[in-house]
Amino acid sequence: MCTAAACLGLALAAGAAAQSRADKLRETFLVFGTVFTGRGQLLPGAEIGVRRGDEKKYRWRAVADRRGEFGIRVPMGAEYEVRVRAKGFAEETRKVDARQGSREDLTFRLSLPAEKPRQGEPK
User: Fold this and answer.
1) Which of 3, 9, 20, 61 stands 20 to 30 A from 49 (CA)?
2) In this model, does residue 8 exceed pLDDT 90?
3) How many CB atoms lie within 10 A of CB 64?
4) For the purposes of burial, counting CB atoms within 10 Å of the CB of 22, is it exposed (0-12), middle (13-18) or buried (19 or more)?
5) What is the pTM of this model?
6) Residues 18-53: pLDDT tens digits?
7) Check: CATH 2.60.40.10 for 28-110?
């Protein structure tokens, strides 16, 4: 059991923490997407990487869920590159501008890589 002053202090602290989380969410940009195969089937397990346009390393990562969906929050105010990869499919990238708005919805359709001609077959 807490005293009235202690309970009030706990309630204020919890309210401040919730407000802080809400403020942080307002300062982020949501990159949301769905990954399909070229035939329109959902592609769970696809690997997603996001990086700033001027960087080489992918800082944010996710894996498409069982519905082929993913969501990644990044800081607002920059341009980003989103890369989607899955075993047996060609990699695909897209540019996202996070300087305006709060969310970008993307759809990826990964195709099978172009087959290389077998040795001795015409190209």
Assistant:
1) 20
2) no
3) 22
4) exposed
5) 0.73
6) 555 555 556 899 999 999 999 999 999 999 999 999
7) yes
